[in-house]
Amino acid sequence: MDEMCQYISNLKLADVPVTQFPRKTGFLGFLISVTSLRQYYSKFVEKSQLEGKEVDSEQLKYILTNKFSQDHLEQFFGAIRAKGGFNNNPSATF
User: Taxonomically, which superkingdom (predicted)?
Assistant: First the structure.
């Protein structure tokens, strides 16, 4: 991960770092996400602490990153919409 972040930080387009380019949002977002995830891992997995209580290190070995997104909620509402046949003007009943 360190090498990947270093590669993105050093990546240039027309001799301008991508982190200073007009379309930098995706690159910065990725670097910030990786940094945040590493800090979360350090705090909750490496130190084996959860809500101020000591936790057995065998319980926390990895982080389920998909739990940090709203995709599961969007999939739920997508399933509800699918039941209605993807109607542009849905009603509250099926």
Answer: Eukaryota
CB atoms within 10 A of CB 45: 17
Strand partners, 50: 53
Residue with tokens 């972040």: 5
Domain borders along the chain are: 2-50+59-83
pLDDT tens per residue, range 19-37: 888 888 888 999 999 999 8
* DSSP character string of 33-70: HHHHHHHHHIIIIIS-EETTEE--TTT-S---GGGGSS
Q: What is the pTM of this model?
A: 0.59
Where in the chain does DSSP place strands (E)?
A: 12-13, 16-17, 49-50, 53-54
